Give the backbone structure.
Amino acid sequence: MPLHMPKSFCRDIATFALAVLPLTSLAQAWQPPPRPSTGLMPNPVVGKPLYETHCAACHGIDLKGSEAGPPMLHKIYEPSHHSDAAFQIAAAQGVRAHHWKFGDMAPVPGLTPDDVAHITAYIRMHQRRVGIR
Ligand code: HEC
């Protein structure tokens, strides 16, 4: 090390690395939400069978939840708290348990962002029917 560098330099670098590295690995883990095709008209009729195949086992065939997952007809899943992007992220990347005691939601394979947009439209339709909007 050149003489003019203060001894504390190494310690500062170490402190810096300790402080910043966890942040950069977080940044790497973060991915932007998948986006449906431009111009797609999300359609609840298309979403219904996709929901029933891929989501109902945990979120309930009636969207009221099950022993494995929370109800979608719940105020915390209203659009202002869980945007459509949150549904895209949930399907693509899974969900770390934070609202409930069911454990984590694993990513759901085999769905395109368009599929998830249709599923979301189906869920939104039922949410509106019970006054969650
Ligand atoms: C194996 C069970 C399981 C399946 C299948 C499943 N989920 Fe989940 N999901 C969960 C659990 C458990 C949570 C709650 C996590 C928590 O504690 O907040 C959750 C939470 C969510 C959330 C909230 C995300 C957030 O940001 O809080 C959304 C949205 C969601 N699921 C959508 C879906 C959709 C759409 C499907 C089908 C494509 C699906 N889930 C399939 C178990 C499941």
Observations:
- The chain has a mean pLDDT of 89.
